[in-house]
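Pilot study result, target chain (193 residues):
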Amino acid sequence: MHIEISIPAQTLTLFDDSGKQLSHYAVSTAANGVGCVKDSGCTPLGSHIIRAKIGADVPENTVFRGRRPTGEIFTPELKEQFPERDWILTRILWLSGTEPGKNRLGNVDTMQRYIYIHGSPEATAFGAPGSHGCVRMRNADLIALFDQVPVGTTVNIHDQAPQDQKRLNQLQNDQQTEARGVEGQSIPHGVND
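Predicted structure:
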């Protein structure tokens, strides 16, 4: 499995190991654009993995704070009560960068920045930037994605134009083939844990 997130297209696409597209979703990335620096409010670029999956089996619209369910279920009335909250709902796929100095370690560490793929209120403008750095998804879409991907799934976040997507997908397929190694032996990816 592999996920591609396109900043210009505001989409998330899930591929199987052979490169076949399994699903395609509209998302919302950072209103501040792209960037990897801590406290920038930007969506980080580059190669990532899903480090943790949080919220399996909680009800849709469960509200999370600090990666823990609050006991609340999102409603328009709750939104009116807390209009400034950044709503993290339903499930969390916590991302970790794999490129030291770009999106891992120091002041550019995606995981330490708490960058997630997470659910959002249905009124969110999907297909347009609007988050504080995370990748927002419709709750039903996130549940479907969450149920398909294991921890360790690779995630590439890029700012290439949509016409370059096919070339990027082929490049990713080639990299995955190389990573499988000769005669099926796995080659370490160099992720320092």
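One observation from the pilot: Strands lie at 2-6, 11-15, 21-26, 46-54, 62-65, 68-73, 88-97, 116-120, 135-138, 154-158. A full batch analysis is planned for the follow-on phase.
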